[in-house]
Amino acid sequence: MKPFVNAFSRSGWRLSPLLLVAVILFAGLAVPQRAGAQILSVPNEEEYRDSLKKELNYGPFFGFYKDNYFLVGTSIGHKPTAINSDVKFQISLGIRLTKNTLPWGTYVFLMYTQKAFWNVFQKSLPMRDINFNPGIGISRPFFQNDRYIGKLTFLVEHESNGRDGDESRSWNRISLGGSVLINEWLMVHSKFWIPIIDSGNNRDITKYAGIFQTGFVAYTPKKKVSLGVTLVKRSGWNLNFNTIVDFIWRVSDKTNLNLLLQYYNGYGENLIEYNQFHSRLRVGIVFRPHFFSEF
To answer: Across residues 91-103, what is the average pLDDT?
Structure first.
Protein backbone atom coordinates (compact mmCIF):
# COMPACT_ATOMS: atom_id res chain seq x y z
CA MET A 1 0.00 0.00 0.00
CA LYS A 2 2.84 2.43 0.77
CA PRO A 3 4.19 2.48 -2.81
CA PHE A 4 0.65 3.19 -4.00
CA VAL A 5 0.00 6.15 -1.69
CA ASN A 6 3.56 7.46 -2.01
CA ALA A 7 2.95 7.96 -5.71
CA PHE A 8 0.19 10.40 -4.82
CA SER A 9 2.23 12.36 -2.30
CA ARG A 10 5.15 13.31 -4.54
CA SER A 11 5.49 16.67 -6.21
CA GLY A 12 3.16 15.82 -9.10
CA TRP A 13 0.32 15.26 -6.63
CA ARG A 14 -0.16 18.92 -5.78
CA LEU A 15 -2.67 19.59 -8.56
CA SER A 16 -4.52 16.30 -8.11
CA PRO A 17 -6.69 17.39 -5.13
CA LEU A 18 -7.91 20.39 -7.11
CA LEU A 19 -8.80 18.16 -10.04
CA LEU A 20 -10.66 15.70 -7.82
CA VAL A 21 -12.58 18.48 -6.08
CA ALA A 22 -13.56 19.92 -9.46
CA VAL A 23 -14.89 16.53 -10.56
CA ILE A 24 -16.94 16.15 -7.36
CA LEU A 25 -18.33 19.69 -7.67
CA PHE A 26 -19.36 19.08 -11.25
CA ALA A 27 -20.96 15.72 -10.43
CA GLY A 28 -22.85 17.09 -7.44
CA LEU A 29 -24.20 20.12 -9.26
CA ALA A 30 -24.88 18.58 -12.64
CA VAL A 31 -26.58 15.38 -11.48
CA PRO A 32 -29.75 15.62 -9.40
CA GLN A 33 -30.67 13.64 -6.31
CA ARG A 34 -30.57 10.17 -7.84
CA ALA A 35 -26.89 10.48 -8.75
CA GLY A 36 -24.95 7.47 -7.51
CA ALA A 37 -28.18 5.66 -6.61
CA GLN A 38 -27.06 5.54 -3.02
CA ILE A 39 -27.87 7.80 -0.18
CA LEU A 40 -29.89 10.36 1.87
CA SER A 41 -31.62 13.69 1.15
CA VAL A 42 -34.69 12.79 -0.88
CA PRO A 43 -37.62 15.19 -0.57
CA ASN A 44 -40.40 12.58 -0.33
CA GLU A 45 -40.39 10.41 2.79
CA GLU A 46 -42.32 7.54 1.20
CA GLU A 47 -39.88 7.48 -1.71
CA TYR A 48 -37.02 7.40 0.77
CA ARG A 49 -38.45 4.60 2.88
CA ASP A 50 -39.79 2.37 0.08
CA SER A 51 -37.36 2.61 -2.82
CA LEU A 52 -34.05 1.57 -1.27
CA LYS A 53 -34.71 -2.15 -1.58
CA LYS A 54 -35.31 -1.72 -5.29
CA GLU A 55 -32.19 0.42 -5.59
CA LEU A 56 -30.00 -2.19 -3.88
CA ASN A 57 -31.09 -4.84 -6.37
CA TYR A 58 -30.00 -2.68 -9.33
CA GLY A 59 -26.26 -3.00 -8.57
CA PRO A 60 -23.39 -3.14 -9.05
CA PHE A 61 -23.13 0.64 -8.99
CA PHE A 62 -20.65 3.42 -8.34
CA GLY A 63 -21.36 6.51 -6.25
CA PHE A 64 -20.68 8.53 -3.13
CA TYR A 65 -19.83 6.56 0.02
CA LYS A 66 -19.42 9.21 2.73
CA ASP A 67 -20.21 12.91 2.48
CA ASN A 68 -18.08 14.80 -0.04
CA TYR A 69 -17.33 18.31 1.18
CA PHE A 70 -15.13 21.40 0.78
CA LEU A 71 -14.81 23.55 3.92
CA VAL A 72 -12.86 26.53 5.17
CA GLY A 73 -12.44 27.60 8.78
CA THR A 74 -10.27 28.40 11.75
CA SER A 75 -9.58 27.54 15.40
CA ILE A 76 -12.11 28.49 18.06
CA GLY A 77 -10.95 30.74 20.87
CA HIS A 78 -8.01 32.21 18.95
CA LYS A 79 -7.55 35.05 16.52
CA PRO A 80 -7.68 33.66 12.97
CA THR A 81 -4.22 33.46 11.40
CA ALA A 82 -2.61 31.77 8.42
CA ILE A 83 -1.34 29.09 10.83
CA ASN A 84 -4.62 28.09 12.52
CA SER A 85 -6.91 28.54 9.49
CA ASP A 86 -7.19 26.07 6.64
CA VAL A 87 -9.30 24.28 4.06
CA LYS A 88 -10.51 20.76 4.74
CA PHE A 89 -12.04 18.63 2.03
CA GLN A 90 -13.12 15.02 1.68
CA ILE A 91 -13.72 12.84 -1.36
CA SER A 92 -15.40 9.49 -0.73
CA LEU A 93 -16.52 6.93 -3.31
CA GLY A 94 -17.86 3.37 -3.21
CA ILE A 95 -18.64 0.63 -5.69
CA ARG A 96 -20.91 -2.37 -5.25
CA LEU A 97 -19.24 -5.60 -6.39
CA THR A 98 -22.24 -7.92 -6.05
CA LYS A 99 -25.99 -7.78 -6.29
CA ASN A 100 -28.12 -8.29 -3.22
CA THR A 101 -28.21 -12.08 -3.73
CA LEU A 102 -25.44 -13.33 -1.42
CA PRO A 103 -26.32 -15.39 1.69
CA TRP A 104 -28.47 -13.49 4.22
CA GLY A 105 -29.14 -10.70 1.71
CA THR A 106 -25.63 -9.25 1.88
CA TYR A 107 -23.51 -7.49 -0.74
CA VAL A 108 -19.77 -6.79 -1.10
CA PHE A 109 -18.37 -3.36 -1.85
CA LEU A 110 -15.13 -1.41 -2.21
CA MET A 111 -14.71 2.06 -0.72
CA TYR A 112 -12.13 4.82 -0.96
CA THR A 113 -12.08 8.00 1.12
CA GLN A 114 -9.49 10.74 0.88
CA LYS A 115 -9.35 13.58 3.39
CA ALA A 116 -7.04 16.58 2.95
CA PHE A 117 -5.99 19.54 5.10
CA TRP A 118 -4.79 22.44 2.98
CA ASN A 119 -2.98 25.49 4.36
CA VAL A 120 -4.29 27.86 1.69
CA PHE A 121 -3.48 30.98 3.73
CA GLN A 122 0.23 30.21 3.94
CA LYS A 123 2.90 30.94 1.35
CA SER A 124 3.02 28.35 -1.46
CA LEU A 125 -0.36 26.89 -0.26
CA PRO A 126 1.07 23.64 1.17
CA MET A 127 -0.97 20.52 1.85
CA ARG A 128 -0.52 19.89 5.59
CA ASP A 129 -1.74 16.32 5.41
CA ILE A 130 -3.56 13.96 3.06
CA ASN A 131 -5.12 10.79 4.48
CA PHE A 132 -5.82 7.82 2.20
CA ASN A 133 -8.50 5.37 3.37
CA PRO A 134 -9.31 2.38 1.09
CA GLY A 135 -11.29 -0.64 2.25
CA ILE A 136 -13.46 -3.61 1.40
CA GLY A 137 -16.62 -4.59 3.21
CA ILE A 138 -19.76 -6.67 3.33
CA SER A 139 -23.08 -5.08 4.23
CA ARG A 140 -26.52 -6.38 5.20
CA PRO A 141 -29.50 -4.01 4.85
CA PHE A 142 -32.61 -4.67 6.92
CA PHE A 143 -36.21 -4.13 5.87
CA GLN A 144 -39.57 -4.26 7.59
CA ASN A 145 -42.64 -4.49 5.35
CA ASP A 146 -40.36 -3.65 2.39
CA ARG A 147 -39.19 -0.49 4.11
CA TYR A 148 -35.55 0.16 4.93
CA ILE A 149 -34.89 0.35 8.69
CA GLY A 150 -31.10 0.06 8.91
CA LYS A 151 -28.03 -1.96 8.05
CA LEU A 152 -24.99 -3.76 9.44
CA THR A 153 -21.52 -3.53 7.85
CA PHE A 154 -18.30 -5.48 8.35
CA LEU A 155 -15.34 -3.53 6.98
CA VAL A 156 -11.59 -4.04 6.61
CA GLU A 157 -9.88 -0.72 5.97
CA HIS A 158 -6.43 0.86 5.79
CA GLU A 159 -5.55 4.47 6.52
CA SER A 160 -2.21 6.20 5.95
CA ASN A 161 -0.79 9.55 4.94
CA GLY A 162 1.59 8.21 2.28
CA ARG A 163 4.73 9.65 3.85
CA ASP A 164 8.08 8.10 4.72
CA GLY A 165 10.35 8.45 7.71
CA ASP A 166 9.31 10.24 10.88
CA GLU A 167 6.16 11.68 9.28
CA SER A 168 4.80 8.29 8.22
CA ARG A 169 1.46 7.39 9.83
CA SER A 170 -0.64 4.31 9.12
CA TRP A 171 -2.99 1.82 10.72
CA ASN A 172 -5.61 -0.76 9.80
CA ARG A 173 -9.03 -1.44 11.27
CA ILE A 174 -11.38 -4.39 11.26
CA SER A 175 -14.71 -2.82 12.10
CA LEU A 176 -18.35 -3.64 12.64
CA GLY A 177 -20.81 -0.80 12.24
CA GLY A 178 -24.51 -0.23 11.88
CA SER A 179 -27.26 2.35 11.60
CA VAL A 180 -30.94 2.25 12.53
CA LEU A 181 -33.82 4.52 11.54
CA ILE A 182 -35.67 5.12 14.80
CA ASN A 183 -38.41 7.06 13.03
CA GLU A 184 -38.89 9.48 10.16
CA TRP A 185 -36.70 12.16 11.70
CA LEU A 186 -34.00 10.31 13.67
CA MET A 187 -31.21 7.88 12.75
CA VAL A 188 -28.62 6.48 15.18
CA HIS A 189 -25.32 4.87 14.19
CA SER A 190 -22.34 3.13 15.84
CA LYS A 191 -19.05 1.61 14.75
CA PHE A 192 -16.59 -0.54 16.70
CA TRP A 193 -13.14 -1.57 15.48
CA ILE A 194 -10.10 -3.70 16.21
CA PRO A 195 -6.97 -1.68 15.39
CA ILE A 196 -3.93 -3.24 13.69
CA ILE A 197 -1.13 -0.68 13.88
CA ASP A 198 1.71 -1.25 11.40
CA SER A 199 3.65 1.98 11.90
CA GLY A 200 6.15 2.63 14.66
CA ASN A 201 5.35 6.35 14.58
CA ASN A 202 1.76 6.08 15.83
CA ARG A 203 1.64 3.10 18.20
CA ASP A 204 -0.54 5.10 20.59
CA ILE A 205 -3.06 6.23 17.99
CA THR A 206 -6.06 4.68 19.76
CA LYS A 207 -5.44 7.05 22.68
CA TYR A 208 -6.33 9.87 20.28
CA ALA A 209 -8.23 8.51 17.24
CA GLY A 210 -10.39 6.23 19.33
CA ILE A 211 -11.68 2.67 19.61
CA PHE A 212 -15.34 3.16 18.67
CA GLN A 213 -17.80 5.85 17.67
CA THR A 214 -21.50 6.49 18.01
CA GLY A 215 -23.90 9.26 17.10
CA PHE A 216 -27.19 10.37 15.62
CA VAL A 217 -28.65 12.43 12.78
CA ALA A 218 -31.89 14.36 13.29
CA TYR A 219 -33.91 15.75 10.35
CA THR A 220 -36.64 18.29 9.85
CA PRO A 221 -39.88 16.87 8.29
CA LYS A 222 -38.82 17.22 4.63
CA LYS A 223 -35.11 16.74 5.36
CA LYS A 224 -34.38 20.33 4.47
CA VAL A 225 -32.16 20.62 7.54
CA SER A 226 -30.24 17.99 9.47
CA LEU A 227 -28.13 17.96 12.61
CA GLY A 228 -25.57 15.22 13.11
CA VAL A 229 -23.46 14.51 16.18
CA THR A 230 -20.69 11.89 16.21
CA LEU A 231 -18.74 10.97 19.35
CA VAL A 232 -15.47 9.05 18.97
CA LYS A 233 -14.42 7.35 22.20
CA ARG A 234 -10.70 7.51 22.85
CA SER A 235 -9.10 4.57 24.67
CA GLY A 236 -9.20 4.59 28.45
CA TRP A 237 -11.90 4.35 31.10
CA ASN A 238 -12.61 8.07 31.45
CA LEU A 239 -15.21 9.93 29.39
CA ASN A 240 -12.89 11.26 26.69
CA PHE A 241 -14.51 11.81 23.30
CA ASN A 242 -13.68 13.51 20.03
CA THR A 243 -16.80 15.40 19.00
CA ILE A 244 -17.99 16.16 15.46
CA VAL A 245 -21.12 18.27 14.89
CA ASP A 246 -22.53 18.71 11.36
CA PHE A 247 -25.31 21.19 10.63
CA ILE A 248 -26.52 20.74 7.03
CA TRP A 249 -29.03 22.77 5.01
CA ARG A 250 -30.18 21.49 1.60
CA VAL A 251 -30.16 24.42 -0.81
CA SER A 252 -32.58 22.94 -3.35
CA ASP A 253 -34.54 19.76 -4.01
CA LYS A 254 -33.38 19.90 -7.63
CA THR A 255 -29.64 19.49 -6.92
CA ASN A 256 -27.49 17.64 -4.44
CA LEU A 257 -25.98 20.86 -3.12
CA ASN A 258 -25.97 21.43 0.64
CA LEU A 259 -24.39 23.97 2.96
CA LEU A 260 -22.40 22.49 5.86
CA LEU A 261 -21.31 24.01 9.15
CA GLN A 262 -18.92 21.58 10.88
CA TYR A 263 -17.43 21.73 14.38
CA TYR A 264 -14.56 19.44 15.37
CA ASN A 265 -13.31 19.19 18.95
CA GLY A 266 -10.68 16.70 20.04
CA TYR A 267 -7.76 14.70 18.68
CA GLY A 268 -7.19 12.52 15.62
CA GLU A 269 -8.71 14.78 12.98
CA ASN A 270 -5.77 13.99 10.71
CA LEU A 271 -2.91 11.52 10.89
CA ILE A 272 0.12 13.82 10.91
CA GLU A 273 -1.21 15.62 14.02
CA TYR A 274 -3.21 12.73 15.48
CA ASN A 275 -1.97 13.45 19.03
CA GLN A 276 -2.60 17.21 18.91
CA PHE A 277 -5.82 18.81 20.18
CA HIS A 278 -7.93 20.82 17.73
CA SER A 279 -11.11 22.82 18.17
CA ARG A 280 -12.15 24.16 14.78
CA LEU A 281 -15.23 25.55 13.09
CA ARG A 282 -15.51 25.32 9.31
CA VAL A 283 -18.18 26.14 6.76
CA GLY A 284 -18.63 25.16 3.12
CA ILE A 285 -20.53 22.92 0.76
CA VAL A 286 -21.27 19.21 0.87
CA PHE A 287 -22.60 16.67 -1.63
CA ARG A 288 -24.31 13.72 0.02
CA PRO A 289 -25.00 10.12 -0.97
CA HIS A 290 -28.53 9.45 -2.16
CA PHE A 291 -30.02 7.49 0.73
CA PHE A 292 -27.75 7.21 3.75
CA SER A 293 -24.31 8.56 4.57
CA GLU A 294 -21.58 6.39 6.06
CA PHE A 295 -19.69 7.42 9.17
So the answer is: 88
